[in-house]
Here is the input.
Amino acid sequence: MPHVFEPAPTGRAKCRGCGQAIAKGELRFGERMPNPFAEGEMTLWFHPRCAAYKRPEAVLQALAEAAERPPDAAALELAARANSGHRRLQRIDGAERAASSQAKCRSCKQKIEKGTWRVRLLFFEEGRFTPSGFLHLDCRNDYFEGHDILAPMLHFSPALNEDDRAELTRAYGVQRQP
Ligand SMILES: [Zn+2]
Ligand SMILES: [Zn+2]
Here is the structure.
């Protein structure tokens, strides 16, 4: 079965990309893949924008094949193209202030101080996303090889309020560029 864009028939399903509910009637994206645990296929449901960042190849394929393109196809394609072919960019799961000083940065291997910004990372395997650690915000250029991650980082940070988002954006902006 091909990947699909369709209106959500109920409001019960959660998006695999962000963990938030997909509202009834809202457009959703279904990625089809072989079920790693049983025979047949399974479908992972996403908000289209969440899939564009985390599963860009599937979204690009669906956009290329869709009989009817979704209304924001151009924006989705732009987001998917930015992350397509870059495994690390697809791991971005937002940002937060470190709740403790226990985690080490996946890039520089140094401790991430409590209260400082860190980027959450996920690993996709066998049809599911698994938390795979953190990065110093300051180490993003090394880890992501200079790619701009502000849009997906903010997108996957729904728990941050307006002030936090403004502060995160400022902290991101004062970074040295490669
Ligand atoms: Zn989502
Ligand atoms: Zn670091």
Observations:
- The first strand starts at residue 4 and ends at 7.
- The pocket of zinc ion (ligand 1) is lined by residues 15, 17-18, 20, 46-47, 50 (CB under 6 Å).
- The helical segments are 48-54, 56-65, 73-83, 140-143, 150-155, 162-173.
